[in-house]
Please model this.
Amino acid sequence: MRTITPLLFTLVLMSNVGGLSGCSRLGVSVPEGSRPLTSAAKGASSATRAKNEEFRKALPFEDERDFELARRGRIGGTEMLRIKADRNKEAAWDMDAYAFIDIATETPDTVNPSLWRQARLNNIHGLFEVTEGIYQVRGYDLANISFIEGETGWIVIDPLITIESARAALDLVNNTLGERPVTGVIYSHSHVDHFGGVRALVTPEDLEAGRARIVAPEGFMHHAVSEAVVAGNVMTRRASYMFGRLLQAGPKGRVDAGLGKSTSVGRVSILPPTDIIDTTTTTLTIDGIEIIFQNTPNAEAPAEIMFYFPHRKAFYAAEEASAVLHNLYTLRGAQVRSGADWAKWLDEAIDLFGGEFELVFGGHHWPRWGREEGVAYLSSQRDMYKYIHDQTLHLANLGLTPLEIAERIELPDVIGKQWFNRGYYGTVSHNSKATYQLYLGFFDGNPSNLNPHPPSEAGRRYVELAGGADALIAHAQEAYDEGDYRWVAEVLKHLVFAEPKNKLGRWLLADAFEQLGYQAESGPWRNFYLTGAQELRFERSELSGIADTASADMLAGMPSALIFDFMAVALDGEKATKADLTLDIRFTDLEERWLLEIRDGVLRYHATRRVEKPSIRLSIARSDFMRVMRGGASMPKLLRAGDAKLEGGLLKLVSFAGLFERFTPDFEIIRP
Ligand SMILES: [Zn+2]
Model:
């Protein structure tokens, strides 16, 4: 993972625009001789059943060793698990929703059998003794949280997404193994599923008093609070597709995200590290335990460490080795990762620790025991990323374009048929496209793709070319009946973008997405297809929203420059073209002073530049400024109470604020 979803769309200012583009007519008649189109969810078609059967035949389902590994050492935890959210009556985490997977006696035909296998494995949750003195709580959130017995307390690795989940895990450990204080925390990397619950474990006072330490890789704080800021709103919306948050759990809905079940929803926190790792083989002793670190930036995460516990011969692979093909490109949208760098770090890990370790465990999934098995696991994962990287460029150098490469490239069986290399999270297909993009960008070199019409415009022309909406639907229906759902998705996209209110077109496209979802081995692919289908069948207003809460820790951890970077993105450039405003702002709680200028549609900020007569001069605590931006406080009230001081007039401040867009993560994806 992934994203700092809760935080971004909270960074909002004060205006908003809406509006959908126009649409022509309401529905068309059902093409003759076809099944009636409806908005109901469907079962698996015969084509989908056949496709899923192919999967079953191609993979070694008789090999059940992963189930042994996933259950090995289980010493605690209840079958039913529902963690209540602190701030409302909802569940922050709900494993009960996935009980249907344990109860089922066979694989539903609406789920790819390989993904179903992964979903069964990820259902195994509780407290596990991994080796003497090392424990993991798995299935309490998307990620694992690990506990190392120190001389006096627990050293905790990767405290999950939310305070609620991390607290439940700590309680389970203390209640089962005896209560101990938390003396150390290690964030393996800058993704929120590996730090957000930290306040359940330690307080700022613990850190100040030296009762606990927090270790993190170089650049952790920066990347943790900034990776998802400037593009945060769009990532949040796309993440809701990727993790299937709007889907019901069930055989026709959410079953698994591949990397874990899904993401917990609750209070996210962050505390700054006390110890930074910037060099490989840095050795620290925490609570009497020696730990050797490997710094591995810019692969799975921009800031990441793997590390080794010599006293237990145990290697923590963070998220760089997991029981999935991971993402070189994550579908919520993120910067592309280099498969070559990823492979390099795994190779270095084998060189550094592979001669010694007897255990490899990590931030997701179950461990690998024994030196040979551990080395084989890391080597195979290394080769997988390297193969995708190298062969994508190999094919690109032969002149193949991304779509052609994705269709052609396949892992050799020796790599691809390893269960832990299956595309449950990333896929070879989209990772190869990402690798192409990393080196060559979005353009495939074909001039036709330089400046095509945008979707609605192209859609209108394609519908006309097809002889109208009815003819296009009839054609798509034929393709549907032949099981060519990819083609249905391709042609009906044009109709939905040309005529978003054409219900029959939407319903047929939804049916095709649904079958593609039922066939997908990747959790995120399934979630994307099924969420798309759901949003085609129902109006957006009928869908439940995303109710994440802002994290005061995350906001407080942001440098002011990053907040201004986000404001610059929120600025409506068209509106601001004629504006000429300067804001001299003093953050009274931080003793910072900034000059913000809006001119020619651009917001610039400077810590040093001053102007004689700014349009507005504002003194305010940054925390209050942030609350105003998030809609949690009113500027006039702060001014009246004397908590903010303004020169230049409220009217000017209002016109300043009016230049910014209020982003909300509920925009349309599958229609205009
Ligand atoms: Zn993770």
User: Anything to note?
Assistant: The chain is about 40% helix and 15% strand. The CA atoms of residues 23 and 499 lie 5 Å apart. The mean pLDDT is 92. Residues 1, 143, 191, 193-194, 319, 363-364 surround zinc ion (CB under 6 Å).
